[in-house]
Protein 1
Amino acid sequence: MAANADKTKPYIPLSGCASGGWSTEDEATATCFCGAVQLAFPTQGQGLLNTFVCNCSDCRKITASMFASNFTVADTHLKHLRGHENLRTYSQQHSIASGKTMTNYFCSICGTLMYRVGAAFPGKSILRIGTVDDFNLHETKLRPQMELFTKDRVSWFSGVEGAKKFEAMFQN
């Protein structure tokens, strides 16, 4: 996307085999790489709780990257549009900072991590910004406002400009 592109309009590029993504003023979709699983979530208001980058060791390992870009949605506002039956879970608590179970929801066909649910965060789902179909939202409404586990950030990443920094986990 060009730096001067109009970020007030949806920009839904071809990515993987996913199709049918959409975005309105208040709601948008997130789809796995193969398109089998699609969610709808709020892009503003009560249901969109926060946006953040996490540098913790679990986020590194589960994303196969150096950090994860996330947003948290109230479960009451998260909709499964298709493919709920294609989601598989993996849970563990061994390396989770809170010491409580974190459950990961993956597409069983392509393996995309769609969201995480933590026992330490009841009523909330942690989605991945990269699954959001409207790429303009990545830079606007879903731009990370916080950065967690900065103490574990790799030296070659200077962090998210303008985001509030936390050495470890954000505390409400």
Note: DSSP finds two helices and eleven strands in the chain.
Protein 2
Amino acid sequence: MGVLVRITVAESPAGGATVVKLAGELGVDTAGELAAALEKLLRHPNPTNRIVIDLTLLGFCDSIGLSTFVDAHRRCAASGGYLALAAPSPFMHKLLGVVGLTRQVPAYATVASALAGGEEGRLR
């Protein structure tokens, strides 16, 4: 059994977005926890309905975890907000690029650049 995912949701929005910090492994056994946390945010959105997911401490993610990011991004966008990924480890950066997720979900080198939006710090 691998390290479970730890999800920390910021108490108050930073830069207009709620920061969700992930640590551990996000996979078939743990993606439901993230989906539930994001669902709670989407049911009770902040005024801008913006979410930044901090990947700094996420060591592993499988296809189920990646699809959780895509689904939440689509739902945020449909309500006028966004979901962005931030600060991926080298493994996660490579994974996001290989599967082409950065073409669908904005990803940034740092949490600060994700909060700022725009093109500076955006990963391709």
Note: The chain has one domain: 6-116.
Protein 3
Amino acid sequence: MVVKITYFVHGTTIDNEQDLATGWLPGELSKLGIKQAKELGKLVSNRCYDAVFCSDLKRAVDSAKLIFGDKYKIIQDERLREIDYGDFTRKPARDFKDRMIDYVNSPFPNGESYKDVERRIADFLKFLKKNYDGREIAIVAHQAPQLALEVLLNNKTWKQAIDEDWRKKKAWQPGWEYILK
């Protein structure tokens, strides 16, 4: 059996609009982010999930609540957090976003590496396989966990996942589908 995963990214934040890296800080949805989450909720209102998970960071929790309302109990899980940017937190993303590959194996100063995120997401996937096999779940989280899913479930290298990231092409879509075998 498989676990079907639909992955959603949180709405635009005030930090996103100011090109600041939020990392493990809560983050606040901007007016645009609130609008995006509400519109996404309308787009997926006919979908049914057995469970909805989200990162425990405020921007993801708020997005999940706006997307799904009271339709589901939203389960927060810290393993779904964004990468910890360490010293780069609240710094301009342009200072490092074009060098993300540098932080695959080496952590951000006083933060995490993308391999650390991969380990967190691999642990979360083991939990899903054990507890939600044969079911369909939704996740609302961040960039790094989604890239980790690309690596773990779509057999991409970290370089491929980073190079092909939808954010570079501005190719947003209302959810990405993954299969956990």
Note: The mean pLDDT is 96.
